[in-house]
Specification:
about 600 residues; alpha+beta; binds ligand BES; binds zinc ion
Length: about 600
């Protein structure tokens, strides 16, 4: 299979190992050093290795048969593509088994965000972190940047001595005195899972069963100001990991840690192996947003162990992961919690789907000529989830679980296409029971727009109560007897979703006075409320909205708010004013999304 989002040539020569030696320079905002790539020849006689790069300054290419003595090699950067970057061709002759590239990153590398000290919690040290998914690894590592190619990797990272480096790999000798850090990951992973962060980063473990008599397997990394809060928020992580093993089989990655990033991190979470990256906006103080940890942890099976071969197969990563995530929630917190998350997911999917072009409503999406980040809609997540739920409900959980475990075993440490995944599903489930299989319109699920009529209904008993309360509230009832004191974050979100469109300022004030949404310490609730405030012109939330957009860079929160603002000329003016100041705090990925919303580009 070929990946249209890579310019490299793994079908001829394949990179199997990467050894990095990089120095971080916080003045020039560059990583500079070398990458030694171990290669194997797939096509006999192939003399050229082609790598993906984006805005890299290539100083030198060398080749070696042993990995010790290197000699200069001819290399050439090809034509630049606005989405895919620039192919780098290296003449590898007949016998070379290693290629060493000496290079430096661009200060505007799409896969790195360099933060000033003011943008951190402690304000003492600057910070840098990577975000490689989908095709940003090539902006900081010359590599075959396709999820179809897997590598083991090692790294030496040189940092200013007062800062610490962490990676998605086992942390070898720590360099806290010298700023010389070493990392190693022995399992083959796709390039989008190579990750690095450097800053005033400290560690605290969380409770959990010990591994071979050694201390627990889980902990959090964060700036000291955030560390304690993060450790208590994620206190159940050890138990979560144990639950996963019970459900899906052994955890293959050794430790599972979470790095809590500064608020500009553009995603909720990123499943970097051994070290999930997470937004601080999940630190709600009551563990109510830990489904994010469940999600990223679940990727240790679906995504990191069994990986989508191309970005059109992205639903294999995310759909399976949402399914596993909800199984974890059910196991740890009960059926009601999982049902609420599923019902919220369905509601959000339906709203988003109504606005999506039909081509983007398809599970195996066609991304020709597009940035794969465009494919990261709710469809691979929630429609993918519903597809798997339909199969689970049709064949029964026992059979489905057996299939899941077999799937993770059979394809562990491999990258697979939708076709391969479906073939295995047929073999393991459908062929054995054609009658049940007949109830699942696979073709429609995978290749047609919309949600099949036969899709499972997700019903939440708790939400039925919330909906009742919302109805009464909208009919003018007081808060008395609403039972909101016991409501969870999910119930509050549902309540807000159930408010009618076109609420006036007076109704917004009535809500705010009763429930203090503008002062909510829960960013998930706050983001929803701020969005409603823009829609309804509720000015009392203006100051909060300005502050939120200036500090938080999580795209899922800020993009809809900018979108809503951009709907009116006055709102767009306001958005431009906020963005002018907020821009430098946003990640390149978020900047690019906001700029297209505000029509500042293309
Ligand atoms: N792998 C994704 C994040 C991602 C997807 C980054 C595509 C770049 C391109 C991660 O596992 C994820 O899905 N994160 C979600 C949170 C999750 C709880 C649904 C997010 O960031 O919102
Ligand atoms: Zn995910």
């Amino acid at each position: 299979m070929t990946d249209i989002h890579s310019l490299s040539n793994p079908a001829s020569v394949r990179v199997t190992t990467i050894a990095l030696d990089l120095t971080a320079d916080f003045d020039s905002h560059t990583l500079a050093g070398t990458a030694v790539l171990g290669i194997t020849r797939v096509a006999r006689g192939e003399r050229v290795l082609v790598l993906d790069t984006r805005q890299l300054r290539i100083e030198k290419a060398e080749i070696s048969e042993t990995g010790e003595q290197f000699e200069d090699a001819r290399f050439e950067l090809g034509k630049d593509d606005p989405i895919l970057g620039t192919p780098l061709s290296v003449q590898i002759g007949e016998g070379a088994r290693f290629v060493r590239i000496t290079y430096a990153t661009n200060p505007a590398a799409s896969g790195l965000q360099w933060l000033t000290r003011e943008q951190t919690a402690g304000k003492r040290f600057p910070y840098v972190y990577s975000q490689s998914q989908a095709i940003h690894a090539r902006s900081w590592i010359p590599c075959q940047d396709t999820p179809g190619v897997r590598v083991t990797y090692s790294a030496r990272i040189h940092t200013p001595p007062e800062m610490a480096a962490v990676m998605s790999a086992a942390n070898g000798r720590t360099g806290s005195e010298t700023g010389d850090y070493r990392f190693e990951l022995g399992h083959p992973i796709p390039s989008y899972l190579i990750a690095l962060a450097i800053g005033d980063i400290h560690y605290q473990s969380v409770p959990g069963r010990s591994c071979h008599g050694v201390a627990g397997r889980s902990g959090v990394y964060a700036e000291p100001e955030v560390l304690g809060r993060a450790a208590s928020e994620f206190e159940d992580m050890g138990r979560m990991l144990e639950a996963c093993e019970e459900l899906f089989g052994p955890y293959r990655w050794g430790v599972f840690d979470v790095l809590v990033l500064p608020p500009s991190f553009p995603f909720g979470g990123m499943e970097n192996p051994m070290l999930t990256f997470a937004t601080p906006t999940v630190l709600a103080g009551d563990k109510s947003l830990v489904s994010l940890v469940a999600h990223e942890l679940a990727h240790s099976w679906s995504g990191n162990l069994v990986t989508n071969a191309t970005w059109s197969d992205f639903w294999l990563n995310e759909g399976y992961t949402v399914y596993l995530e909800r199984r974890i929630l059910e196991h740890l917190y009960g059926k009601e919690r999982a049902e609420m998350e599923a019902a919220l997911g369905r509601q959000v999917l339906e709203r988003e789907m109504a606005e999506l072009p039909v081509g983007d409503q398809i599970l195996q999406v066609d991304l020709a000529g597009r940035d794969p980040d465009d494919g990261a809609t709710g469809v691979p997540y929630e429609k993918g989830y519903l597809f798997l739920l339909a199969i689970e409900q049709t064949f029964g959980r026992e059979r489905f679980d057996r299939y899941l475990r077999a799937y993770f075993d059979k394809y562990s440490f491999q990258s697979i296409t939708t076709e391969a995944a479906l073939a295995y599903m047929r073999e393991m489930l459908f062929d054995a029971d054609p009658e049940l299989a007949g109830k699942i319109p696979v073709e429609e699920w995978i290749h047609k727009a919309g949600i099949p009529a036969s899709a499972p209904r997700v019903r939440s008993v708790l939400f039925e109560r919330v909906d009742e309360a919302a109805k009464k509230w909208n009919a003018g009832a007081t808060t008395e007897g609403m039972g909101t004191a016991e409501w969870s974050t999910q119930e509050w979100l549902r309540f807000l979703h159930e408010m009618p469109q076109g609420l006036g300022s007076a109704e917004m004030r009535r809500l705010d006075e009763a429930f203090h949404f503008t002062e909510s310490g829960n960013d998930e609730i706050l983001a929803e409320w701020l969005l409603m405030s823009v829609k309804t012109g509720y000015a009392a939330a203006d100051a909060k909205l300005n502050a939120f957009l200036r500090t938080v860079g999580r795209r899922k929160f800020i993009k809809p708010i900018y979108e809503e603002l951009a709907k009116s000329p006055a709102g767009r003016e306001r958005a431009l004013g906020i963005y002018a100041e907020a821009r430098q705090g946003y990640h390149p990925i978020a900047q690019s999304s906001i700029e297209s919303v505000l029509k500042l580009k293309r």
